[in-house]
Amino acid sequence: MSERVLQILIQAFPKILIPCIKVTIPLTICSFILGLILALFLAIVQIANIRGLKQFARFYIWIFRGTPLLVQLFIVFFGLPSLGIMLDAFPSAVIAFSLNLAAYNAEVIRSAILAVPAGQTEAALMVGLSYPQLMAKIVLPQAGRIAFPPLFNSLIGLTKDTSLASSITLIEMFSVAQQVAARYYEPFALYCEAAVIYLLICTLLTWLQATVEKKLTWVKPVETEEENAQNITD
Amino acid sequence: MLEVKNLHKSFDKNEVLRGVDFKVEKGEVIAVLGSSGSGKTTLLRCISFLEKSDQGEIIFDDFRKEITKVTNKEIRGLRMKMGFVFQGYHLFRNKTALENVMIGQTVARKIPSTEAKATALQMLEKVGMLNRANYYPDQLSGGQQQRVAIARAMATNPEVILFDEPTSALDPELTGEVLDVMKKLAKEGTTMVVVTHEMGFAQEVANHVVYMEGGIVVEEGTSKEIFTNPKDERTRRFLRRTLSDYDYSI
Question: Considering only CA atoms, which of B53, B148, B26, B39 is closest in space to residue B95?
Answer without folding.
Answer: B148
